[in-house]
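Problem 12. The chain below contains 202 residues. Write out its predicted structure in token notation.
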Amino acid sequence: MPNEELESLIEISTGERLKKYVQLLDKWRKVTNLISDESFRQIWGRHILDAVHLQRQRPEARTWLDIGSGAGLPGAVIAILLAECANARVHCVEIDRRKCAFLREVASQLVLPLKVHNIQAEQMSSMIGAKVDVVTARAFASLDRILRLAEPQMKEGAVTVLPRGHSAHAEVARLDGALYSFAVTPNPTPGDGVFVQIELRD
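Solution.
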């Protein structure tokens, strides 16, 4: 594992699962459009580390919903981090069947608490049914759209936690403060990213 910061944050068994995940990602990306060459070169120091820091925003959460999971960043990585936790479940919503096939292969080979939903994001509330602790999405859509999609889960008590870039402050400034409570904290992963945590007010 070529990243000392990441190695210090995780357990040995988790590290082995992450290595296997990267091996599977490398194998599958050669036959389907999972991740670009440039992104794969940054898989440890940026993408996986980013997912680890995301999970650390809500370490007590056991049920996650990842919208637009793609290659499993962050959903599959969060499932790896929670693999030894009782009652953990990560729901990955992805419309691309090939990416869903990859995620199911990851879940099977690594024995993960990960359930893949090959559906449109607009269908997830009626199709998933489970109550979740955290809703997340990475490089998926605007903040407004994500909140519209996550509203049913948030009404049941879920918090939305999103890794965002430099535009996050402007997006958050447009939120209705009477409807939402929110916090913006720096993302420790190198770069200018932040984590935005949003909850519905009572």
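Discussion. The chain has a mean pLDDT of 92. Students who got a different answer should revisit the alignment rule from Section 12.3.
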